[in-house]
């Protein structure tokens, strides 16, 4: 063991030997700087925690996942609060159903788990726009995550709603929240605005009380720690299995000379982007490094312990050299799988924890039952252009130039831009996005015939033919806003003029598409007695809806949907948006379907929006296990 490690061990074992006299009935949680540890009820305390995102797990499975975490030996969980999940429309707050954060905290409390709360306002988390609501972008020059007055006002309004809800859940008030993070990995952001962080510190103190343990988390570099740390907020680090632990904690010590060692995000796995190999992290490495940190007396939170799923449109994206969208699955190669199943990694972690604290007796709850329902054949409903009366009930917005999603206040999903060809194009003529203004992917049809696509950063030109006056429909897909780095001001739609040959396309009719609203209300199955426009069994190319039903046979079990040879699109079951599929791009090949979503007695309605081209067989396969294509080992 390195000398540096021995130094840390000595300090923290001293902490573990301290005892204090608890005032009868009082609850407290604090930092003991003298003995380099946390104190819970005046006694030395160390947490072994795991990250879980209630926003990525259906409410009916929250308890199952929490019990499995408790039975692994964790004494705490770490929880992000995505602002945009609760305030998708400015001023309208939703804390019901799958958004019932207080119910989640209560379940954790009943289970015996303390909570490390990460309320943002920015969270990253590979979540859409890092948890910031897209309506912030209606202020075109807003500087996010800074002391910009428009941004600070919105943040202050939000925290004035959220934090008073959290205050009764603080440990000192009888709840289970022991520490609260301010912002998230702020040192990784270009702004480095200490006035912003001071404003947050003041807000958190005012709304939660002076005694609440507030902390920051930053990456393991001097620059990140310098810009992310602030006096009065306890500075912690994050790192994975490929890091020299002693050096990492020495860096924390430079910013926090005394107090507990904390790794706030110890990476048990990693995320996937479309088109990249599936990431895995070796279970033996995870358990070895976890053991080394615990031997040093450190507090550790494992990120993720269960990842869950980016249902709907909630996946984020990265933009380092180019735009890369995060896949629907947030399995993360975590100790609990996307479906909440214990893995070999979980058992290895439990074996490590056993060496440091007594873990609950009794069996680990089993994996949820899975079922392979087999094949379902779908039928065509119609292409999007022929269904606008249903999908865009408010009709189009007319404008000389294209408008963004944010300008039309449709923040997620899809919009259709319609104009006409300004002249005859008998020869293929380039349609160009000269300023890389298609965010993120555009499907182009002329008179209902699909002609190709434009894609942010990678496909800026395609060819078009047609006659003057022909209808040009461009369906634009928001593939998820950037969640990390300097490009989080990520507007969607057509952001700049498109040029066709030598003409600038103008006079647009822009249709905001409420696909989720129509499908939640029962469409297209409620209209299936009607003859849909273009209704036929044969597939088409371009953006087309398909429908089918899954007969449950009395079983409602978790299952995985594979759309083999389908190209790219979105799937809904019984009105719930399961997320995006893109099997040809991979690595994700299946979509997770939670069993309680299915009916045991009624036909289960399947709706598929295929954006490019469906296979001739039009079949969907329901399997009893997930599938990813090639994997890449992450150290």
How would you characterize this protein structure?
The chain is an alpha+beta fold. It is built from 13 helices and 36 strands. The strands form nine sheets. The chain has an eight-stranded parallel beta barrel, surrounded by five helices. The longest helix has 18 residues, at 149-166. The two termini are 21 Å apart.
Annotation keywords:
single chain; 635 residues; alpha+beta; 8-stranded parallel β-barrel; 6-stranded antiparallel sheet; 13 helices; disordered N terminus
Layout of SSEs?
Blueprint (H helix, E strand, L loop, with lengths): L2 H15 L11 E4 L4 E4 L2 E3 L2 E5 L9 H11 L3 E5 L2 H4 L14 H11 L2 E5 L30 H18 L10 E5 L12 H15 L4 E7 L2 H7 L5 E6 L5 H11 L6 E6 L10 E4 L1 H13 L3 E8 L10 E3 L3 E3 L18 H10 L20 E4 L1 E5 L4 H4 L5 E3 L5 H4 L5 E7 L4 E8 L5 E2 L1 E6 L2 E7 L5 E6 L4 E7 L15 E2 L4 E2 L2 E2 L3 E5 L2 H6 L23 E7 L8 E4 L6 E5 L2 E6 L8 E4 L10 E7 L8 E5 L7 E4 L1
Helix pairs in contact: 2-4, 5-6, 9-10
């Amino acid at each position: 063991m390195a000398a540096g490690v021995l130094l840390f061990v000595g300090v923290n074992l001293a902490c573990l030997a301290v005892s204090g006299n608890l005032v009868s009935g009082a609850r407290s949680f604090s930092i003991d700087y003298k003995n380099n540890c946390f104190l819970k009820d005046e006694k030395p305390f160390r947490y072994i925690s795991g990250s879980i995102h209630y926003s990525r797990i259906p409410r009916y499975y929250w308890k199952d996942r929490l019990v499995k975490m408790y039975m692994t030996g964790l004494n705490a969980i770490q929880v992000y609060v995505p602002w945009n999940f609760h305030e998708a429309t400015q001023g309208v707050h939703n804390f019901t159903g799958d958004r019932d954060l207080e119910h989640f905290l209560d379940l954790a409390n009943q289970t015996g788990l303390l909570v490390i709360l990460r309320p943002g306002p920015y969270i990253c988390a590979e979540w859409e726009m890092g948890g910031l609501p897209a309506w912030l972008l209606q202020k075109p020059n807003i500087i996010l995550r800074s002391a910009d007055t428009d941004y600070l006002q919105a943040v202050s309004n939000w925290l004035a709603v959220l934090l008073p809800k959290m205050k009764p859940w603080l440990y000192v008030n009888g709840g289970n929240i022991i520490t609260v993070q301010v912002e998230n990995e702020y040192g990784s952001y270009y702004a480095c605005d200490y006035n912003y962080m001071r404003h947050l510190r003041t807000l958190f103190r005012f709304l939660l009380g002076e005694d609440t343990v507030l902390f920051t988390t930053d990456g393991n570099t001097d620059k990140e720690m310098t810009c992310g740390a602030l006096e009065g907020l306890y500075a912690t680090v994050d790192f994975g299995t490929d890091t020299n632990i002693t050096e990492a904690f020495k860096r924390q010590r430079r910013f926090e000379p005394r107090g507990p060692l904390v790794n706030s995000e110890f990476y048990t796995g990693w995320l996937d982007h479309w088109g990249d190999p599936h990431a895995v992290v070796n279970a033996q490495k995870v358990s070895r490094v976890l053991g080394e940190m615990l031997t040093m007396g450190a507090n550790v939170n494992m990120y993720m312990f269960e990842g869950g799923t980016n249902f709907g449109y909630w996946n984020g994206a990265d933009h380092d050299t180019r735009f890369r969208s995060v896949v629907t699955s947030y399995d993360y190669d975590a100790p609990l799988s996307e479906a909440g199943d214990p893995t070999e990694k979980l058992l290895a972690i439990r074996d490590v924890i056993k060496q440091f604290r007594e873990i609950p007796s009794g069996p680990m709850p089993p994996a949820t039952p899975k079922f392979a329902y087999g094949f379902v054949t779908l039928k065509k409903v119609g292409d999007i252009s022929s269904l606008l009366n249903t999908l865009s009930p408010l009709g189009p917005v007319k404008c000389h130039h294209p408008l963004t999603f944010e300008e039309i206040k449709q923040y997620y999903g899809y919009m259709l831009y319609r104009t006409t060809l300004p002249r005859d194009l008998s020869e293929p003529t380039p349609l160009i996005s000269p300023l890389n203004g298609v965010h993120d992917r555009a499907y182009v049809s002329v008179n209902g015939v699909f002609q190709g696509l434009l894609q942010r950063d990678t496909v800026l030109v395609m060819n078009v033919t047609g006659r003057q006056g022909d209808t040009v429909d461009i369906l634009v897909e928001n593939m998820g806003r950037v969640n990390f780095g300097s490009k989080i001001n990520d507007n969607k739609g057509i952001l700049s003029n498109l040029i066709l040959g030598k003409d600038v396309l103008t006079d647009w009719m822009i249709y905001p598409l409420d696909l989720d609203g129509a499908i939640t209300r029962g469409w297209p199955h409620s209209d299936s007695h009607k003859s849909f426009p273009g209704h036929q069994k044969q597939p088409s190319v371009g953006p087309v809806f398909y429908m089918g039903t899954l007969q449950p046979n009395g079983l409602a079990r978790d299952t995985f949907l594979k759309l083999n040879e389908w190209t790219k699109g979105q799937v809904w079951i019984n009105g719930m948006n399961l997320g995006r599929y893109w099997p040809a791009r991979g690595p994700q090949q299946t979509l997770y379907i939670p069993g309680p979503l299915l009916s045991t007695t009624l036909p289960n309605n399947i709706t598929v929006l295929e954006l490019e081209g469906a296979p001739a067989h039009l079949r969907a396969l329901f399997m009893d296990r997930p599938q990813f294509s090639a994997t890449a080992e992450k150290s």
